[in-house]
Amino acid sequence: MAENDKSALKEYGNRVRTFRKEANISQEALATFAQLYQSYIASIEKGDVNIGILAQQTLSNTVGVKHYQLADPDFPIPPENVLRENIRRYITARNIDPAYLKDKFPNYVKYMDELLQSGFLNEPKTTKEIAEKYKSEYELEITPSRIADILSRGTRKDKIDIIRSACGQRNRYKLMNQKNNS
Asked: 7, 96, 122, 168: which has the fewest Cβ within 10 Å?
């Protein structure tokens, strides 16, 4: 990739970060609203990934601007109150939990660690089953893709066996035996 291409990625990433920070939301909140992975948002902001036009459109729709305005360094970034209202309208229309806009961020990772310690994953579970446990145990909505993301990062990735299904759908996750963790 040419150096000027990398520069464009970094400029775009900086623009996304500036919009996000002006809206006073976390990467995790933006990822939730745009229904993307938090790690993907981080990669975009660092300029490490070349995203497609549909992802650009999703991000711009989330903050209430056109995709070309999000990328345009001469387009003025709306103030926080305007961005947050745009985001509120966007997430309301998509039935996404507005708690992220109220600065009440559910700590999904903390709850995952609690589930791991509880023995819930001593038997293989699908991400759908884990999402149902989040809802019943913690009264939190979480997407199966977010669960897969949490289980594949940090110290959890070394503690979880992924039992792959034949069709690539419905993988199951199981806590490794303690003797395998040493």
From this structure: 168
